[in-house]
Amino acid sequence: MDARQFVKRGKFVRTEDLRENGPRRLTITGVESVENKFAKGEQVLQLVCDGGTRAETRLDLRTKANQDFVLGTFGHDTDDWIGQVIEAYYSPDVQGPSGGKGGTRLRLPAAPPNVSTFVSELDDAPRRAKPNGSGAAATRPATSAEEAPLIDDDMPI
Length: 157
Description:
Elements: H1 15-21, E1 24-35, E2 43-50, E3 57-60, H2 64-74, E4 85-95, E5 101-107, H3 115-124
Antiparallel strand pairs: 1-2, 1-4, 2-3, 4-5
């Protein structure tokens, strides 16, 4: 079966996709001025982005909230926007141009977790009994490589 028949060919970030599939990280690769399709004769900024799944993805900055976010975060010079990473997500609070509820909002992506800190915090965490009543096996730390067990025979299978 050819999966290409099921892939949407659109090049714009769609609110429905964000609602169904969750947020999308986008890297801004360009900015263009285009005609606003909801207000004829009015221009709107359009972000040209690399979303990882398509060669090019576009996102119109029609709402004041998204315009304010980009301007406040990256400044007024659109050249400074190039290479910046944003996250587009679905928000039910957005009022659409045709009166519909729900739309696209922008934000900075959350920083990835610091794995080394997370792992060290786990090492210090107290061990607790499992819900089935079995507890963690008590082991004494090995003092040399020869004493370190290769297999934990105390683990129930």
